Amino acid sequence: MPRAPSKSASPAPSSARQRRKEARPQELLEAALALFVEKGFAATRMEEVAAQAGVSKGTLYLYYPSKEELFKAVVRESIGTKIAEGVSELGKHQGSMAALLTWMLWSWWERMGLTPAGGIHKIMMSEARNFPELAAFYNDEVIEPSCELLAEVMRRGIASGEFRDVDPDAAVMVMIGPVLHLVLHQHSIGAAGITHEHKCTPEQVLELQLELMFEGLLNRPRDGAMTRSPA
User: Fold this and answer.
1) Residues 74 and 56 sit within 8 Å (Cβ to Cβ)
2) pTM to 2 decimals?
């Protein structure tokens, strides 16, 4: 009489399958970011995100129970982590505050303005009125902490005598205004394929923005051109 098969435990998942499971939240966020930037928050459907990520809609809802929660996760991953890095850099920075501000501006442009993550700002500018809860979230998670980070750099520069005694919050608005304009253009007119070859590049705008800002902010002449390194 043949022996009945033993009821052994199910085999453990392969390492490749485990790695895929661990990477899935990031894959979902990347798919969501691409669609949010392309179509906007209101027009993006959860099933589209799932399809782009190559998973079922049920799997997507397992990780993110609503489109609002998915969007919040995208914001935290795409922008919140960059703000946290800036806070960390401020905590250990030993050089001039002008050098740190220069690094922050260029880092933000290269990692936000030149990537899909910059499109999140355009989404909020265009759709915040229709989604006040998301607008409040964006203000609390992005606008307030990023402005406070830059204002703290301004305050430290003022306290050390490196900067003139100006209103730190107003100075932050002066600094970020041109950058935000460039980002909005990049993800609106620029995204439509409309270019002005005879005009200056965003990098030229940022270089001049820093030059003009520091001419009015510094208590002393600049020591040559500011580099993009925080050191």
Assistant:
1) no
2) 0.81
